[in-house]
Amino acid sequence: MLGKKVLQGKKNPSPAPNSREASPTYRAAVDTGGTFTDICLLREDTGEIFISKVPSTPSDPDRAVLDGLARAATAAGLDPAGLKLLLHGTTVATNALLEGKGAPVALLVTRGFKDLLLIGRQNRPALYDFWAVKPRPLVPRRLTFEVTERITAGGQVYIPLDEGEVKAIVEEIRRAGVFSIAVSFLHSYANPRHEERVREIIARVYPAARVTLSSDILPEFREYERTSTTAINALVQPRIADYVARLKEGLKGITGPGMQSRRPPGLFIMQSSGGMLTADQAMRESARTVLSGPAGGVLAGLFLARQTGRPNVITADMGGTSMDICLIKGKQLRYTTEGTIGGYPLSLPMLDIHTIGAGGGSIGWVDGGGALRVGPASAGAAPGPACYGLGGTEPTVTDANLVLGRINPNRSLNPALTLQPRLARKYLEEKIARPLKLTVEEAAAGMIRVVNAAMARAVRVVSVQRGHDPRDFTLVAFGGAGPLHAVELARELNIPYVLIPRYPGVTSALGMLHADVRRDYVRTALLPLNDTEPDQLADLYTPLEEKGRRELEQEGFSPSEIIITRQADLRYRGQSYTLTLPLPAGQLAPEDLAILRRSFHLLHRQEYGFCREEAPLEVVNLRLVAMGSLPRPAVSTPVKKKGSRLMPEPLEERPVYFDDRFLPTPVYRRNHLEPDMSLKGPAVIEQSDTTTLVWPGTSVRVDQWGNLIIHVGGR
User: Fold this and answer.
1) Where is the region Disordered (predicted)?
2) What are the CA-CA distances from residue 696 to residues 148, 443, 657, 658, 664 (Å)?
3) What are the φ/ψ torsions at residue 30 (nearest 5 degrees)?
4) Which DSSP string do the residues of 479-543 spell out, in sequence order?
5) What is Dmax (Cα atoms) for the chain?
6) Segment 327-376, tens digit of pLDDT
7) Which residues, other chains included, contact 227 with Cβ-Cβ below 8 Å and sequence gap of 6+?
C-alpha cells in the first residue's frame, strides 16, 4: 500500500507536484517491524498526511526504509528533495539481542568479579518453574577479563590501575578478532577515572575497537545491572552504528540527481523512553533503542487519550510478529528503569511496555501433548503466512482470520500479493485440523481463541496484577492485526470501550510525530533525606543540568526549546527497590522536601499496599531529563463531514465466523464512515492498512476525529 492520502485541515492550496520552486517540505516517521515497515509523511505547510506500508527487509532493513520513503513521496506527489526530517523507530537492536546476532563482546571487570554476569542476583527466572533455564551470559567467560584496580564506594582510588595488564588484555582481545569491548569496573559511577584511562589505552593499542564504558552508559550503583546494560550496549552498538551510518548515507541520495548540495534531512532515532536520539548518540548509546518501535505506539496512545478526553487507556499494538501493551493512567506515561529484554536486565529509562510473541504472523502448532499452541515463532515477512503464497507452509493467525471470513480474500496489506485462501485452508487442515480431528473452521477458531487468551493474560500483567481495574480503561487497539482482535479481547477483560485510530496500521509511526529529543542523566547519591539540606540536594543537580543544556544547545536547540525535569529515586532505608518521584526546578525549600516525603509514602502505599511513615528515607539516585522540543505541525484537526447521511452504505455482505457459526455480515469501507455515523454489529470495516471486526451485540460510532469508538458493554 503506497501513498494513502489523509487530509488534516488543509490551510493552503497544494502547489503543482512537479514545481521545483514551490516544492513543499515534509517530514517522515518510519516504524520498522518484523513484517511491515510503516511510513507516514506529514506535509508541513498544509498538515496533510500520507501513509504507506511496505514489506520489511529483515536482512537489510535500511533498504525497505529508503525505498519505501522514495516510493511513498512519489505516490504522494512530493519531491523527495523536500524531506526535512526523518523520525525512525527500528527493531535492529531488539532483534540483535533476542536472536543472539549481536557482535562478539569482550568484557573488562574489576579483579574478582569475572563471574558477575553468570551469578547475577542468584534468583530464579520463574520462582515456581523447576524447569526454568537462565539465559546464557551475554559475554562468555573466555572473553571476560579481570583487571587489577579498585575504586571505593566513596570514589577514592584504593588499588591503582595496572596499565601494563590492560595493554596485554587488549592485545589478546585484538588477536581474538573481537572489536566491541565493554568496561565495567566496581564503583565507577563514583569515579570514572580508571574506565576512562582504559578507553585511552584501547584507542592507542586497538583503534578499530568500539568501546562502551559503564560510567558513560549508566553511572549508577548496582554492579550487576550496570554491567548487564553495558554489555547489551556493546553487543548491539556495532549493528546499530552500521545501520544508522547506511541510513544517513542513503538519505543523502534520496534527494535525487542534481540536489546533492541540499542539506540532508535530519535523522532522529526513537529510544525506549519515548524520546528521540540524534543519529550520532544512537550510534554511541545503542542500548537506548531496544524498545524503539513500540515506544511510538505508546506516544500515539497518549495523544489519543488527550485528544478524546479518555484519561485511562491501555494500548495494544498487534503487528505481524508481536504485541506490545502499555497502560496509561490519568494521561500520564509510566516509566521503568528495571526492565528486562530476553531475560537480561536493562536499567535505562524506558516506557513500561509488556511485549509478547503474538501477531498476525504467529504460527499455530500442536505440541507433544496434543495441545494447540500459537507463537511465539512467527512467519515474519519472509516467507510470511501461508496465504501469501511465498513459500510459507505453517498456518498463522492471519491464515485463521482469512478462513473465518474476517479478512477480505481480495485485499492484502501488501498490494503486490494476492491472498490465497486455498493455501491457508490446506496448511490449517494439515498441521492443526487433522491432528486434532477438527474441521478447518474449528481449527482456525481455536487458534484465534488461543492467541486471544495469551493477549488477555498480557493485558492483565500491566493492569490487574498492578492494582488497576480494566473496567476503568479504554482499549486503544492498532497495528495491522490489532483491530481484528480488539473486541474479543475487551470482552474477555470486561473493558467497556475500544478505540480504533483512523489509521491503525501506521499508528506507531504517527506517534513518532509527537516525540521530542530526550536525554537522560543519572548520578548515584545515597543520601539520608532527613539529614539533607534543600540547597545541598539542589546543588547536586547543577552539573547534570549544565551538561543537559550544553549538549542540546550543541545539537541546535535554543534555550527556549529546552525543558529540564528533575527526578529522584527514593526508598526506605534498607530496601532494595526504589520509587521515582518528581522534584521542582530551581532552588529547593524545606517544604519541597516535606512534599517529597509525603509523596513517597502515598506512592508506596499505592504501589505496594502499605507505607511506613516513621521509617527514614534515602535518596538513592538523582535523575534529570533534558528535552529539546521539535516543532510539530498540527495533526489533530477534526474530520469534516462530506455528506448528510446518518448511516453508511455497506459495500457487500459476506459470511463471517462468530461464536462457532457463520453469520451474514455487512462490510463497510472505513473512508465512507463520517463523524457521528454509527452502526451495530456484526460488521466488518475495511481500510487500506487493517480490518476492524465489530462483534454482534456491540455498536460502533465515529467521533469527530475519525476514530472508531466501539461500545462493548459494561460501564
Assistant:
1) 1-25
2) 70, 22, 11, 8, 11
3) -130, 125
4) SSSHHHHHHHHHHHHT--EEEE-SSGGGHHHHHGGG--EEEEEEEEEEEEGGG--HHHHHHHHHH
5) 82
6) 999 988 888 888 888 788 889 999 988 888 888 888 899 988 889 998 88
7) 107, 109, 116, 117, 182, 184, 214
